[in-house]
Protein 1
Amino acid sequence: MVKGSFRGRAWVLGCAVLVAARIAHAAAADALPAQPALPLVVPAPVQVAQGVYVMQGNGDAVAPANRGVVANNGFIVGSGGVTVIDTGSSYRYGRAMIEAIHTITPLPIQLVIITHQAPEFVFGAAAFRDRDIPILAHQRAAELIRDRCAICLKNLRHTLGEEEMAGSRVTVPDRRVDGTTTIDSGGRALQLLHFGPASTPGDLAVLDTSTGVLFAGGLVSIGRIPELRNESIPGWLAALDQLAVLDTRLVVPGFGPPVQRQDIMQTGAYLRELDAGVRRAYASGVGLTEAMRTVQAPSFTRYRLYAIAQPANVQRLYLQLEKP
């Protein structure tokens, strides 16, 4: 089997497991009569450094009860304008985020940066596009949004409902970078850091150089099992090692509370434990179905999404080992 077809098969199967688990997770709520969607209340912006604000999601799986408000995003207020980091899982969230920003500052929003293509981070972008605000991502993330996010949007519509996802659409970034670079946005110097394929092929981390706050996007997850989709485990571990030596004051993960830089290696510890467990099972002749049931990461069983994401992650890595 050629490399491309293998990766496509693994990606589709991995998504199928995640979707099935999430549908089961939300089945009780789905059985209730449909109710009109109430105005979306987004997390209050919390200032973590001068001009740097975090809007922290609850870190759980997307479900009707949380209305998809699960991932972290934020914004940086400079002397001339605002830079937004990630946009949430729906048009409603993006619109509510814009309103929340304008309770903090009257300055215009000048740029949106998407750190990676996971659905919890990208579908609010349409609300910014409708206001002619540029949207920037890594080239590979933009390509994945274009090619694959229609499937993610369909899944979110199933989970959250048509009314909750009203106005949400695939919004392909119109500005792209292909490597690490420094930009000026809103009067702040921002380093856009790309370490090669890691949690996704197009991960960006965003460092505000004046405060040392790092938005790590999909590279770091605290208290929540990362969901493997388009990862390179060696590249991901190498990226975490490079993040760990940066001169950062605070790290904002994709999920979970802001942490000190030494704490980001929790994600690396999970990846190593997962990878080692799958390799042991495969080498011992354990079949895929049994591996998905038995390969555990004992140090992380209390993390959010463990029951959902762990077997799907095992499946994905096992299929990679089966690659000819």
Note: Confidence is low (pLDDT under 50) at residues 1-17, 23-35.
Protein 2
Amino acid sequence: MRTRRSRWIAAPLAVVVALALAGCTQAQLQGYMPSESGLTNHVDRIMGLWTTSWIVLLGVGLITWGLMIWAGIAYRRRRGQSGLPVQLRYHMPFEIFFTIVPVILIAGFFAFTARDQAAIEEPIEDPDYSLTVYGKRWAWDFVYEREGQDPVYFQGLQAQVDPESNQIDAESLPTLYLPTDSSIEITLEARDVAHSFWIVEYLYKKDMLPGLTNHMYFETGSQEGTLTGKCAELCGEYHSQMLFDVELVSPEEYDAYLETLEAAGNVGAIDASINPFTGDDNVDTEADEAFDTTNEGENDR
């Protein structure tokens, strides 16, 4: 009898859940995350962890709220009653239940998060492309490695604000080029203080710390287009203007862009020599001189 009753309860519940999920939009199914499926080999994994976690937590919340409302109604004071209700001090089954269930939930969240993070952080032994990103107050430098040739680079300035509209001038943003359908390794360095490299649509960010080299590994999908990048670590007065664009282009267009950098004379390696923590306070670069000139009277580097 109890088994039959459980089936009558479970079957309609399963139908309701299936219909609810079937009516969800793609944005809802991916937890309203600002990305698209297949953008990298990690994006779907991250969206799956996020959405599943919210479903589990919402279920726990509904059960908890339901029990609270039920207890408030079932054990409310009736007309004619007076005094205190029967006081219960201990109920071991409930105590054990309320201890074990949270432990299981926390352990489950930890296990799935650790599994996905380990997969995301797994190095790519032989990436198709390698590049280095330098964070600096308050802009970015990009160094593109080339097989059998000297690297080429782009040195950017912080985003400029239009004094009339008080809006960011999109044309002033540094642009990082990435090839589609490729495995990529990005080496992350900080020139001065702690920064954080964040391509918003990739749903993952990585710290950039002075004196410490970090890496990001991922495989891009076939989608081309423009993505949003920013610093995700409060790094000073103009942190909000430490922005950049990401252009996803075909490998052919990527190689063509590197050729334009070479034609402009941006050839050779650059390093973190302007990092104030290296002990050499007299080293500067053309990009920093241009930055100082642009922001003269505003910033003290």
Note: The two ends are 77 Å apart (CA to CA).
Protein 3
Amino acid sequence: MLANELLHRLADLGASLRFFSRLPVPQLGRLDDTGALPSLPRAAAAVPLAGFLIALPASLIGLLVGSADLPDLLIGLIVVAALVVPTGALHEDGLADSADGLVGGTTVEKRLLIMKDSRIGTFGGLALILATSIRASAYGALFAHPAAGVFAVLGAGALSRLAMTALWAALPNARPDGLAARLGQPDQRAVALGVGLTVLLLSPLPALIGASATLLGIAFAGLTTLAFAAFVRDKIGGQTGDILGATQVLTEVAFLIGLLIGR
């Protein structure tokens, strides 16, 4: 029974890693179908760990370049690049599309139509510039203390994916025929398990950067998730894949700002 549950969780992790990144992921146990999409009602519990692992290469690259005599901003930009490459800018694309649609559209129909357009407009471009600048500046500052920088990258990867799944579970699908709708919505048990796993993954941070900074970062990320959920519910009535990608980037930004204010 326990072995079967572990195999299911490994399969969920494998499917989540393949869906949210381009990392080469081997079969994780006999129940892991390498061609299957994650079943979010259950697999949401593994998404924070997937985010942690996706961020692992960037954290190690940050540790390496942080030991060189480079400007903080350059270190931060390299870390952000190392975060974007494994995902193929999946979440950044969602941020840009969401900014264009939510701000540029005047009706629900127009907002959803703009979000489906692959071209980037003014609002999307500005959102990407601001989000990238803030993340790079924050990571550059945090890697002044290498261990703190490493676990800030890893913690942000896990917490931002938890925020994404929580918003996914809380809001209905704004586009019934979209990919987010086909994957299913995370159930409450999966989100609760994800919360516990995220707390465990964040546990080294208080000793490295301080309990108050860690709590402030978590609070900022949580408030950002709530505010963004209310905003998108008002604008389009629910979530889409683009909204979920935007949630990941926005909560990562909020978490990093909280860490820097509280340290």
Note: Residues 11 and 31 are 6 Å apart (CA to CA).
